[in-house]
Specification:
Strand content: 25-35%
Strand order of the largest sheet: 3-2-1-4-5-12-11
Bound molecules: N,N-dimethyl-L-histidine
Radius of gyration: 20 Å
Structural class: alpha/beta
Shape: globular
Oligomer: single chain
């Protein structure tokens, strides 16, 4: 995708989603350069355990993970983030590997490739593409050897149940019986812990969320007054997810010039910007089974509430 295609998709989505009821913005637009830096900061917060827990589980169990994958030579990571998770995993083997990194963000790909550049047994290839398209084009290139596809960081949590089922089904359909899939998912935990993870006392999560309005102002000629919004994170028990909103603290008119959109927000009206689904270990296995996988092994950090699950196609 070219930068201009990405900007027009952004404009089109902003126009569409801001007119829905309730008003919404797709969470993928949280990740411009500043948003990605703020997300990295979130991962360092003591209240946000996902990244640390996953790194620890990968480090503790990487030898065992590779013992389930005899002859694996190819890794495909969907959304590699800063590359540190994959680096931790590959330190569990000295066998030569090729890693394909798939992401829509060129910046994320360069950063991950840089992190992985000193892993001696690894050759890195980047693919700037949506996950499914990138994976399918990589899997069309016959390698002959088993491939491990990775979807880490609880990125699955930002897909709704239909979206995650569709994604998992496409991943399963692109694998052969000798390939495997490693997925990291955040687990249901006490509401107070989730509240602090998504509305931290330092205000980093709030800044991460608000930045999407700053981005609309800058890139699409928006007129959002950022001082008149507050971040709100709520546990939605019925749907097993955290919901994030930007709440207007006063009545205000907003224009977005690039898409000729003008609308009024009431005092207290919320824009729904993100949801983060939380799984149970068995619930995740059921979701995998319903999408064409069977579970091979699962490693759980009970303190942090995080599960890493290895699966193959059924
Ligand atoms: C990227 N994703 C898994 C994060 C999450 O926990 O859902 C995004 C995030 N949003 C607010 N804090 C972190």
């Amino acid at each position: 995708m070219t930068p201009s295609t990405l900007i027009s998709a952004f404009a089109e989505d902003v126009r569409h989603y801001l007119q829905l009821s309730p008003r919404q913005l797709p969470s993928m637009y949280l990740y411009d350069a500043l948003g990605s830096a703020l997300f990295d900061a979130i991962c360092e917060l003591p209240w946000y355990a996902i990244t640390r827990a996953e790194m620890q589980v990968l480090e503790q169990h990487r030898a065992e993970i590779f013992s389930h994958l005899p002859g694996v030579t190819r890794l495909v990571e969907l959304g590699p983030g800063d590359g540190r998770k994959l680096k931790t995993l590959v330190e569990g083997t000295s066998d030569p590997l090729i890693a394909h990194l798939v992401d829509v963000s060129d910046g994320a790909l360069s950063r991950a490739a840089h992190t992985l550049s000193d892993a001696l047994n690894l050759r890195v290839v980047t693919h700037q593409a949506p996950f499914e398209d990138g994976l399918e084009s990589i899997m069309r290139e016959e390698s002959g050897d088993p491939t491990l596809v990775l979807f880490l960081g609880s990125n699955i949590g930002n897909f709704d149940l239909r979206g995650s089922a569709a994604l998992l089904q496409r991943i399963a359909a692109s694998l052969t019986p000798s390939d495997a899939f490693l997925i990291g998912a955040d687990l249901v935990k006490p509401e107070r812990d989730l509240q602090l993870a998504y509305d931290d006392p330092l205000g980093v999560s709030a800044a991460f969320n608000l930045n999407v309005l700053l981005r609309i102002n800058r890139e699409l000629g928006g007129t959002f007054d950022l001082t008149a919004f507050r971040h709100r994170a709520v546990w939605n028990a019925a749907c097993s997810r955290m919901d994030m909103y930007l709440v207007s603290t006063r009545q205000q008119r907003v224009r977005v010039d690039a898409v000729d959109l003008e609308f009024q927000l009431r005092e207290g009206e919320a824009i729904w910007t993100e949801s983060s689904y939380k799984y149970t270990p068995d619930g995740l296995i059921t979701q995998l089974e319903n999408s064409g996988f069977e579970s091979m092994a699962q490693w759980i950090d009970h303190d942090a509430g995080f599960a890493l699950t290895l699966a193959r196609t059924s």
